[in-house]
Amino acid sequence: MQVIHRDAHWQFEESLLVKQLLERLELLPESVLVVCNGQLVTEDHRLQPDDAVNIVSVISGG
Amino acid sequence: MRCRKCGERAAINLRQHRLALCAEHYLAWFEEQTARTIHKYRMFEPDARILVAVSGGKDSLALWEVLLRLGYHADGLYIDLGIDKGLHYSTHSGEKAADFAAQHPTAHLHIINIAETYGESIPQLARRKRQHQRPCALCGLIKRHEMNRIALESGYDVLATGHNLDDEAATLFGNTLHWQASYLKRQAPVLPADGEGLARKVKPFCRFYERDTAAYTLLRGITYIYDECPYAIGATSIQHKLTLTQLESRAPGTKLQFYVSFLKAKEEGLFCREEMPPADLHPCKECGQPTLAPERCAFCRLWYAEDQVEAENLQSTS
């Protein structure tokens, strides 16, 4: 699966739960939203190797 | 995970509420909760004329969207600060505000260009004031002045901002760390128009997590500027938000409890045992907005050279 977060890109060959992906990338679930193939998904959603995943950071400020 | 309302696939899990919802029911829940917050804190009447401060970011555009969907008369105000830093930040954020307004023809968008109106952009002013590394204080002063000015000049009943729970909790956290009692006293979902020349200010999103407003914006298909203000990098407010988010991840609901309990404690008089004397506000001799300063307000003094301000101060105290 192709994963994008801000300017970073990753490629994963295996299937992962959203929760597992966020743990791998050391991202707090409360700080992001995960969009898989254009759909917002929850942390128990299973991501497939051919999915396009966009991790959207929600914390802003200044 | 399934939607609690209909059993379909959930789009979002709100751990702080132990509630999972599909896209359709989340949008309805979000709008209903906004209406409840407006009612709970008596923010404004159904026929109020509301001015929404929009930055082109997710919170302000989501707020404008929700208010229009709830049937309120809500116009927008975008302040072009002239921030570029190679990212054309103000240009892009202004485009998002304009695009939103174009899709909502019944709502009017006021646009104030600071450089055109006052002769200098934020970065230019910051360089002159030697605050070019972190012009945030200048930026905040200018935005507050202009929001208040337009709200009053255009006859709006209330000014609404998109401050969310993460914003409020981070502000509360920072003020508590430094025991800024005067700021703690003033932090609230509603700031009444308690002086001549001050617009009523409300924060209808004050009980929503930043993640909630981001989800609403995404699910509604509202395009907003993803980039942060380039001057916000390393800002203390973001550090505080991250700290609180780490606490939240261990104990869902922490941020909400922190903020709501603070409001309750304030209401019960925990922080304000003594009656404070009223502030000696009077109109600025330049712009007419309320100020504590003897002559010109802090905003108007920005646009004058330092030696001229010093000369005026000497004259007023002699």
Walk me through the topology.
The complex is a heterodimer of chains A (about 60) and B (about 325).
Chain A: E1 2-5, E2 8-11, E3 16-17, H1 18-24, E4 32-36, E5 39-41, E6 46-47, E7 52-57
Parallel strand pairs in A: 1-7
Antiparallel strand pairs in A: 1-2, 3-6, 4-5, 4-7
Chain B: E1 12-14, E2 19-21, H1 23-40, E3 49-54, H2 58-69, E4 73-80, H3 89-102, E5 109-113, H4 114-118, H5 122-128, H6 136-153, E6 158-160, H7 165-177, H8 181-186, E7 190-191, E8 201-202, H9 210-220, H10 236-250, H11 254-267, E9 282-283, E10 290-291, H12 298-302, H13 306-317
Helix pairs in contact in B: 1-9, 2-9, 7-10, 7-11
Average of the residue pLDDT scores of chain B: 90
If you compute it from the alpha carbons, what radius of gyration of chain B comes out, rounded to the nearest whole angstrom?
A: 21 Å
Number of E-type strands of chain A: 7
Unreliable residue runs of chain A: none
Main sheet properties of chain B = 6 strands, mixed
Helix percent of chain B reads 40-55%
Shape annotation of chain A: globular
Biggest pleated-sheet summary of chain A: 5 strands, mixed
Question: What would you note in describing this structure?
Answer:
The complex is a heterodimer of chains A (62) and B (318). Chain A has 62 residues and is mainly beta. Chain A has one helix and seven strands. Chain A has one helix at 18-24; strands at 2-5, 8-11, 16-17, 32-36, 39-41, 46-47, 52-57. With 318 residues, chain B is of the alpha/beta class. In chain B, helix 2 crosses helix 9 (210-220). The mean pLDDT of chain B is 90. Classes of the chains: A mainly beta (62), B alpha/beta (318). Chain A binds chain B through residues 28-33, 35, 39-45, 56, 58-62, and chain B through 1, 10-13, 15, 20, 23, 57-58, 136, 166-167, 170, 209-211, 214-215, 218-219, 226, 228-229, 231-233, 235, 237-238, 241-242, 245-246, 248-249, 252.
